Structure formats: C-alpha cells, structure tokens
Amino acid sequence: MQIGDLGEQALIKKIVELLGSSYAPGEVGIGDDASLVKPSEGMWLLTTKDLLVEGVHFLLSAGCAADLGYKSLAVNVSDIAAMGGVPRHAYIGLAIPRATTVEFILDFYLGIKEVADKYGMLVSGGDTVASPGPLVISVTVQGEVKRENVLLRSGASPGDILCVTGSLGASAAGLAIILHQLNCPENLRKEAFLFHTRPTPRVAEAAYLAESGGVTAALDISDGLLKDLGEICEASGCGAVIYEDLLPIHRAARTVAALQGISPWQLALNGGEDYELLISVRPSHYDLLAQGYLSRFATDLHSFGKICEESGIWLIKKDGEREKLSFTGFQHFRGG
C-alpha cells in the first residue's frame, strides 16, 4: 500500500501503534502544537538535529528501511553522547514521496524503535509531509547532562593526549564495498556493512569519560577524524600532532584500501561516519583513565597523538618525517 492510499493521520496512528512503549509525547499528547518535556534538576538540556536527504546522506540501495531508521536516530544519539549526555527524547520528521509504501515507513520506524529501546529513549513527536522527492528525514534528539560533566570542543590545551574510543575507517570501507561492489572476504564485508549502516553511539563510554574529570574536549567522529580534530583545534585555539604508528585503523579499512589501491590512512582520516568519540585528556589523568576504561569496557582507549601550540594538524611518520595534513573528505556545498 502506498502512503497516498492511506493518508497522514492513519499513517501516524500506525506509527504510534508500532512504537508502543517507545512512544511518549512528553507532558501533553498528540493534538497539541508542541511537546512539553522537563529537564531534571541540576542538568543541562541538550538538543541536536540532523537533516538527511536521499542521494546526499543515504542511498536507499545501501540497506533496508530498518537500517535507515536505526542510523538516522543513532547518529543523533552520538551527538548527545559527544557532550557527555544521556539521550531522552526523539522527534522524527519525514518528507515522504507519494509512491513510498506504508511498509517501508513502518520498517523505518522499527529501526527507530530499536535505538530508542536500546538507549531508554522516548519518541515524543514529529511531523510527516508529502514530498515530490527525494525522501527527506529530519531527526531531533534531546538529552541531558550534569552541568559539571558537560564536554565541549573548546577545552583542549597543548600537551593534552588525543584518544579515540575505537578503530577507524570501517564505515568508509563499508560504503566503498557498497558503491564499488568490491570483492573482499565475507566476514569483513558484513562487519564493514554493519559499521556503516548501524553505528554504535558511545553513550555509556561518554558518561564514564565525562565523570572522570580528565577529559578537556570531545566530539564524535562523523565527518572524518581529520576534519573533526580540526574542529577541536579551532575551538581550542591550538594544533595537533598525529603519530602514524599509533592511529588505530580497522582491518576492514586496510583490506578495502588495498583493493582500491589507496592508503588505509585515507579511509581512517577522511572517511567519516565512525561515530567513535574523539577526546583530549590531561596528561596527569591519562594512565588512570585508560586503565579504568579498559576495565569498564574491555577495550582500549587508543592514544594516537597530542595537542600542540602550533596551528594545523601534523603527521609524524614512522621514519620521523613531519607532514602537514589537509582534509580531503566530503564537504557540503563544495562538490566533493
């Protein structure tokens, strides 16, 4: 059945029925002009929003509708985590081409529900409108963080140690496999595909790091490590040094890079959509923080560089050569 055969109100009823306990409209219900939510005492209210356009941010051929719903919400949850927060409420807006099937939209909301249930969130509102095409997705997420724990981009200082919460390049490898139909081992294909279509927001990890008192700046890696590290450097008024032999590159990125005849560094530095946390840590806190992180999450907090006074981002190669890096990944409005 197509959306046009069902109508907006009937579609909304089906969505609410599908969400079940994951749906809660805040202090007032459907029928009012806005949802009302109350932040907790002593907390900051966090709000993030993403607009996703078919053909720009996602390809319908790159996964199922549930994958698309999952990723649409997960990437916003990651933004809340990047500030040390806990996600609470989601608002979903859709501009839907008339030929879209009801089944597609309900499957999309199954992915939304999976993320909401996983992180204890509620879908508290949204909107649906007709579109002549393409499909457009608007997601807003609200969360909260203790005022003393909030993580910003602007607190890094020279000498701080740079870390990431996981290996890089797997999502970019997954996209390359999809776009170019690369012939790689099936286990790596599946792993990279999952990294690309179903990223894992580091909510628990971020809460731990925020409470440690040792993290000076943070964000999630969405546009690529090089671009996102540049955001921290610009906000903090400093530069950064990356050590070639320390950056964790995912095995899928190494395999795909070899198949494409490029350096795995290209995928790790510029690929984007890893959604790992990028943080700077006070040197006096690093050892204890890394030990605690390993104990808590059974994985390493990977240190790969440091903040420096000199502007720019610099790569120290294995042979000791020093090279200034420039971001070469996708940028909106620049045709690349």
Walkthrough of the structure:
This protein is an alpha+beta fold and about 325 residues long. The protein has two domains: about 5-145, 60s Ribosomal Protein L30, Chain: A (2-Layer Sandwich), CATH 3.30.1330; about 160-325, PurM-like C-terminal domain (Phosphoribosyl-aminoimidazole Synthetase, Chain A, domain 2). The chain has helices at about 5, 10-20, 65-80, 100-120, 170-180, 185-195, 205-210, 225-235, 250-260, 265-270, 285-295, and strands at about 45-55, 85-95, 120-130, 135-145, 160-165, 215-220, 240-245, 275-280, 300-310, 315, 320-325. A seven-stranded mixed β-sheet has the order 6-8-5-9-7-10-11, with helices on both faces. Strands 1-4-2-3 form a four-stranded mixed β-sheet, covered by helices on one side. A hairpin with a 5-residue loop joins strand 10 and strand 11 (about 320-325). The longest helix is centred in the first third of the chain and has 17 residues, at about 65-80.
- Which structural class matches the secondary elements? alpha+beta
The outline comes out as: globular
What separation lies between the terminal Cα atoms? 37 Å
Number of helices: 11
Summarize the helices and strands and which ones pair or pack.
Layout: H1 3-6, H2 8-19, E1 43-53, H3 65-81, E2 86-97, H4 102-118, E3 122-131, E4 136-146, E5 161-164, H5 170-180, H6 186-197, H7 203-212, E6 215-220, H8 225-236, E7 239-243, H9 251-260, H10 264-270, E8 277-281, H11 283-297, E9 302-308, E10 313-316, E11 322-324
Parallel strand pairs: 2-3, 7-10
Antiparallel strand pairs: 1-4, 2-4, 5-8, 5-9, 6-8, 7-9, 10-11
Helix pairs in contact: 2-4, 3-4, 3-7, 5-6, 5-9, 6-9, 9-10
